[in-house]
């Protein structure tokens, strides 16, 4: 294999004229990150103008390349090169992006792990920074980001802190390393480790770090003008692939074998009417373009009619299944209970009417288990139903309870089902949890209904066999053990506010998408993602018990930086022109990808009254908010 040339520049600062410094005599090293220890590919020192160039021979393992610049003992800068060789600028902003995007793969100064996850993380890195220039990425500089959220400014404030460490301004280093030391953790040895600590513990000393950032020179500007609740970095995406079919109430996400996000979409944006399409996004949030056997977004056909919360991927066929619920006036409802099926390229396999059967009606959750059995929560008629091995001519069904909503398959192959009693407005009905299994082709109940919660929504199971239940009506997350006994109830902590979506990460910690209280005068303008400590004492944060909040009291939020939220077309979110400053809206689902990015759906607009009228309401929220590198990637066993 012939040598390749790696070139670039090491510098400090980058956006304010006259503040950029080229760094001379700095050792630069290129590494290949993959499973196991990173491989050293070559190194050199920068010249007087900060430039470097040297020959390397990449191994081509399917991982990614990254570079470090060791300015001194306490200042380590980094840049993610990516899956392929390219020239880069290494500065404070690239270091911020590297630390956050690789937060689940870095240990000490090294990066390594699952090659597939590393490639996804590298794509998310490029959503934060342009490695070729060392400036903010085009994604952050343009809507729906820019000053419609605070992420762009947050990256700059963090970069300013690192730049002050490079220049050792006002003795900032000691304070910076002190404030980024995690609870029960080790003091960072250098700037890269300090940023990793912030990415993994974003609520730790958040206000103090903001005050420190205010006191150093703004070599990256404009920076934050208000203290964040936590130092999370979130990228919003809302390009469906066709501006004639905008996001309108994305409800839930499933990731396929390529890392593509398939997204159930409720309604036609600006109307209450059922959507007849779903979205597919690439791992970095760009719309799927149909290349190399992948789908092209949006995906149509197969009987799609107002998808609800339900979307799933069969591991045996790689087919995507969608449950149809129906929204708006009666004419917009599915005629009969229907499900839709697509192959991995987005081709419809179900007929134009969808798969119809009297056993199903207005599906919410739809979940495929490890054997390819497709489970459905039939909200409209109280059944749980199964297509054994995906065979639609052999449906099995069993009464579940009042308005089944969520389904989760536990470690033993049993299906836990949450019964909502209703959507939660104007009544606030009692909920319940039950459990089933498919035994020799027959559907059996293995747990009699346990009354718990109000207007229950999603249920999720962890690796220990526990079940976690989002109870929107009493704003509580319940914890049930494997026998179905309630062992914990967590109300109003970590930003919990009428929880809806749930996800369990690779450490068994629990993530909650909050919908906010239903009600005509409700305006949920502080959308939040909640993180709770899980039931696994070996992997939850030290000093916390199951159900303790990890996220701050506000949850992980995404404030505006001063500009109102606009749709992809540039129109206001609300049709009456009322300005909205909530880039993170009412959420029904949160999903974790293989790089630990948490994808949160903007299902409904914050102002509930806009959503209320069946024939004229305008409920559909806009786009997806992706919290970068925030969660432990899910287990793949």
Short characterization:
The protein has eight helices and 39 strands.
Structure explained in plain terms:
This protein has 637 residues and is mainly β. Helix content is 12%, strand content 32%. The chain contains eight helices and 39 strands. Strands 1, 2, 5 and 8 form a four-stranded mixed sheet that branches. β34 and β35 form a beta hairpin. α1 (92-101) packs across α2, α1 (92-101) crosses α6 and α4 packs across α7 (206-214). The radius of gyration is 24 Å and the shape is globular. The mean pLDDT is 96.
Question: Secondary structure elements and their pairing?
Answer:
Elements: E1 4-12, E2 21-22, E3 27-33, E4 39-45, E5 51-56, E6 64-72, E7 75-82, E8 88-90, H1 92-101, E9 106-107, E10 110-111, H2 115-128, E11 129-130, E12 135-136, H3 138-141, H4 151-166, H5 172-179, H6 191-200, H7 206-214, E13 234-237, E14 250-255, E15 261-265, E16 277-281, E17 299-300, E18 307-313, E19 320-324, E20 338-342, E21 355-356, E22 363-368, E23 374-378, E24 383-387, E25 396-399, E26 404-409, E27 415-419, E28 430-439, E29 442-454, E30 456-461, E31 467-471, E32 476-480, E33 486-491, E34 499-504, E35 510-514, E36 529-532, E37 590-592, E38 598-601, H8 608-612, E39 624-627
Parallel strand pairs: 1-8
Antiparallel strand pairs: 1-2, 1-5, 3-4, 3-6, 6-7, 9-10, 11-12, 13-39, 14-15, 15-16, 16-17, 18-19, 19-20, 20-21, 22-23, 23-24, 24-25, 26-27, 27-28, 28-29, 30-31, 31-32, 32-33, 34-35, 35-36, 37-38, 38-39
Helix pairs in contact: 1-2, 1-4, 1-6, 4-7
């Amino acid at each position: 294999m012939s040598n390749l040339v790696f070139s670039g520049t090491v510098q400090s600062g980058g956006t304010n004229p006259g503040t950029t410094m080229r760094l001379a005599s700095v050792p630069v090293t290129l590494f290949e990150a993959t499973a196991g220890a990173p491989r050293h590919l070559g190194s050199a020192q920068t010249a007087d103008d900060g430039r470097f160039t040297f020959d390397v021979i990449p191994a081509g393992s399917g991982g990614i390349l990254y570079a470090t610049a060791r300015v001194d003992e306490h200042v380590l800068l980094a840049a993610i090169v990516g899956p392929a060789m390219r020239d880069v600028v290494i500065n404070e902003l690239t270091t911020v992006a590297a630390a956050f995007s690789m937060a689940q793969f870095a240990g000490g100064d090294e990066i390594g792990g699952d090659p597939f996850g590393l490639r996804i993380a590298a794509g998310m890195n490029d959503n934060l920074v342009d490695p070729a220039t060392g400036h903010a990425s085009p994604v952050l500089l343009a809507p729906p980001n820019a000053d419609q959220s605070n992420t762009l400014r947050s990256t700059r404030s963090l970069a300013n802190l690192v730049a002050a460490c490079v220049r050792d301004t006002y003795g900032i280093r000691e304070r910076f390393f002190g404030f980024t030391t995690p609870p029960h953790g080790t003091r960072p040895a250098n700037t890269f480790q300090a940023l990793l600590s912030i990415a993994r513990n974003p609520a730790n000393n958040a206000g103090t770090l903001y005050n420190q950032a205010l006191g150093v020179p703004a070599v990256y500007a404009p920076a934050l003008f208000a203290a964040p609740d936590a130092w999370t970095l979130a990228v919003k995406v809302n390009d469906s692939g066709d501006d004639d079919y905008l996001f309108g109430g994305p409800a839930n996400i499933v990731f396929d074998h390529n890392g593509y996000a398939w997204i159930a979409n409720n309604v036609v944006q600006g109307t209450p009417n059922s959507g007849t399409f779903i979205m597919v996004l690439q791992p970095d949030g760009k719309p799927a373009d149909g290349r190399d056997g992948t789908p092209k977004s949006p995906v149509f056909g197969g009987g799609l009619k107002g998808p609800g919360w339900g979307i799933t991927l069969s591991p045996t066929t790689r087919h995507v299944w969608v449950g149809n619920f129906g929204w708006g006036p009666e004419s917009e409802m599915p005629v009969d209970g229907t499900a839709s099926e697509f192959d991995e390229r987005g081709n419809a396999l179900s007929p134009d009417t969808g798969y119809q059967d009297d056993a199903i009606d207005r599906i919410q959750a739809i979940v495929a288990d490890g054997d390819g059995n497709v489970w459905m929560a039939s909200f409209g008629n109280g059944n749980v139903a199964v297509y054994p091995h995906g065979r639609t001519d052999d449906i099995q069904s069993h009464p579940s309870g009042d308005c089944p909503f969520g389904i989760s398959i536990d470690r033993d192959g049993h299906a836990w089902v949450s019964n909502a009693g209703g959507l939660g407005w104007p009544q606030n009905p009692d909920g319940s949890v039950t459990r089933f299994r498919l035994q020799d082709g027959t559907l059996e109940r293995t747990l009699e209904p346990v009354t718990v919660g109000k207007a229950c929504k999603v249920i999720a199971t962890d690796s220990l066999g526990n079940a976690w239940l989002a109870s929107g009506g009493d704003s509580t997350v319940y914890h049930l053990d494997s026998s179905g006994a309630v062992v914990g109830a967590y109300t109003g902590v970590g930003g919990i506010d009428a929880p809806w979506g749930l996800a369990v990460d690779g450490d068994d910690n629990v993530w909650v998408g909050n919908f906010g209280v239903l009600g005509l005068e409700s305006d949920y303008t502080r959308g939040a993602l909640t993180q709770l400590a899980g039931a696994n004492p070996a992997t939850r944060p030290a000093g916390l018990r199951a159900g303790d909040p990890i996220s701050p009291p506000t949850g992980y939020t995404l404030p505006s930086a001063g500009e109102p939220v606009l749709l992809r077309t540039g129109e206001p979110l609300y049709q009456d022109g009322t300005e909205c400053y909530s880039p993170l809206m009412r959420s029904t689902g949160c999903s974790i990808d293989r790089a630990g990015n948490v994808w949160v759906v903007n299902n409904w607009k914050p102002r509930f009254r806009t959503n209320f009228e069946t024939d004229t309401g305008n409920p559909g929220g806009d786009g997806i908010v992706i919290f970068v590198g925030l969660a432990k990637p899910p287990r793949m066993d």
